[in-house]
Design brief:
Shape: globular
Structural class: mainly alpha
Order of helices and strands: HHHHHHHH
Helix content: 55-70%
Distance between the termini: 20 Å
Strand content: under 5%
Number of strands: 0
Largest sheet: none
């Protein structure tokens, strides 16, 4: 982030290739810089979820951990399998699929994280909120 900011201030071209080991992420960053539409299974679902579509389920490495799948990145069958389970859970408990996924993701990020800084990933306070409002944002500053 510091290097990117420095390049931006100095009005230099930014080389985003540093720090991006995932080839798909690098391709999407290149597309963004060229103004070309980008995407991918996770990216498209994540973007839809951010826009408020709570029927979309985003499967990433933390979701694999939540389901005890020992892989760095999900494959198509992982995505289908986990999404099916999440949608069944969603129907059973009466909340949206993205909300079930968020609870599982938060659990995995907090409890299955081998980082010594687990408390930095404790989202339980936010899961208890009905909506993110200004008072919550001000508390964090």
């Amino acid at each position: 982030a510091d290097k990117t900011l420095k390049y931006k201030i100095l009005n230099k071209d930014i080389d985003f290739s540093y720090g991006l080991a995932n080839k798909q992420i690098r391709k999407n960053v290149d597309k963004i810089l060229l103004g070309i539409p980008y995407g991918g299974q996770k990216v498209n679902k994540f973007a839809a979820a951010l826009k408020g579509n709570l029927d979309k389920v985003v499967i990433d490495s933390w979701m694999l951990k939540a389901f005890n799948i020992n892989r760095q990145s999900p494959v198509t069958n992982d995505i289908k399998h986990i999404t099916t389970i999440i949608k069944k859970l969603s129907d059973k408990v009466g909340i949206k699929p993205a909300e079930v996924q968020a609870c599982l993701w938060s659990y995995a990020k907090t409890e299955l994280n081998d980082s010594p800084f687990k408390e930095d990933n404790d989202f339980s306070y936010y899961l208890q909120q009905t909506r993110l409002d200004d008072s919550i944002i001000k508390e964090e500053k």
